Amino acid sequence: MNRFALRGLLLALFLVLAASAARAQNVPDKVTVRQKDGSSKTFDGTFTASAAGFQIVAADKKVLATVNPDDVLKVAIGDLPGADRAQVLANATKEEKRDWDGARKGYEDLLKKVPPTQDRTKRHLEFKRNLAAQRAADELDYEKDWAASADKCAQLWGDFFTDHKGGWELWPATRSQARIFVERGKFDDAARAWNRLAKSADMPTDAKTEAALQEIDLNVRSKSYAPAVQAAAEQLKTATGARKDRLVIYEIAAKAGSDAKQLEGVEKIRAEMNKTKDPNVHATGFSMMAELYLAGGKPRDAMWSFLWVETVLNQDREEVFKAVSRLATLFEAQMDEDQLKKYREKLKRYRGSF
User: Which pTM was predicted?
Assistant: First the structure.
């Protein structure tokens, strides 16, 4: 073979490899989203978060869908420059088999090889590593060092937020960290987690508003009444519908707690709830009444209000998880070992939904 033929062969081989590499670098994400009728739909595109919303964008930049992040059931990530795709897929298989520790180690190995310039890849792999670590901790019982493992996971999320200020992963990451803080009874830390998200430039307006409501809720639970009063008043300037109804309840609860008139606040919340039949507003109402009962030294009344949230007004998983967490603490204080064991098991089951 002469040198010209050899050059031609090498050029052809280079073009084939380049085309193959280009295809490998244009693998779309597969984003499975819950539809309004309860079914699911999978979109092929890049999942992004920006002021415009949580969006799935096609290769030609067309927006395929703008979604509620809590309706996203699964994201099978596509293009991750700098990461070996075969290893990424192998980790996904480990996750499907619930080999959480194996997945965590796999993501750590991948992260060692990612160039520092590949921020999206690094962010996603760290997100998946932290999530795998949290899932491994979630399967532990209270008697088997769950608390210590959960605290380590919360710190991992803290490091993640220090390093990454944008990306769709911030929303589920915040939910995951806040859930740990709620179960650990650290409502002030959970409030700070949502406050940080509410200030993110990459979050859509609706997401920032929901984060602000979560912060107000958790400030009431941690008895940080003054910032809750101020934030509720600010949000009420623009709120409408059910969101406005919830904010009115938060404002009543925060003012009652601040004035040490908790039981008067309970009656005001009850009167406000009677103005609507929205179950989510009622769930917020019963939760805030329970918190005021607790602050007012009436744990039995608080228990019945939390039970109402858990068993009747249970459409909102956030409210239910907070109620179940509070109930576990109440039964522990009452030294009711049977109920304590029952509610700790419920908490363990609920962890997987966040």
Answer: 0.89
